[in-house]
Amino acid sequence: MDAIISPKxxxxxxxxxxxxxxxxxxxVQMSHYISHGKTTTLEHCCAVAYFSMRLSxxxxxxxxxxxxxxxxxxHDFYLYDWHVPVSGRKLHGFSHPAAALRNARSHFSINRLxxxxxxxxxxxxxxxxxxxxxxxxxxxxxxxxxxxxxxxGYRYRSKFMRYIPVRRGEVNG
Length: 173
Hints:
The protein has helices spanning 7-22, 25-28, 41-58, 65-74, 92-107, 112-120, 134-151, 159-163, and strands spanning 34-36, 39-40. It is mostly helical. It is globular and about 45 Å long. The termini are far apart.
């Protein structure tokens, strides 16, 4: 695969890797929750997947690209508004990787690499859940980058979002 990711590549390769996720009602539900700033969780996960693909191709990192993209799309698959306090729920930063992995396993068939991408994306905050594969390291780093940009107010008006063939719901609130 080429290091350059063209709109055509996004239109063809993303659906090949994550087609079942893109049309799944539970994944589309992520558009109802805000992740960072004004970015929905679905937009955030799409951005993390896209930039993970770009980084791994640019640096010629030998990875299982399908597992990395699937893990990136599901890394924040927790399906709740973390801004609303709930009695008994642990701090979001520490607990949401486990919630995302539980949800991913209950809705999809998840392999070992995808599971590590999901559970380790908050490392080093989640000390016991370290990235154990290159796919998880890439997504962990890219997630920090995207989260920082979104928190600072960056909006993805970009080329990659319009080419991701996902159904989007209305954002609550």
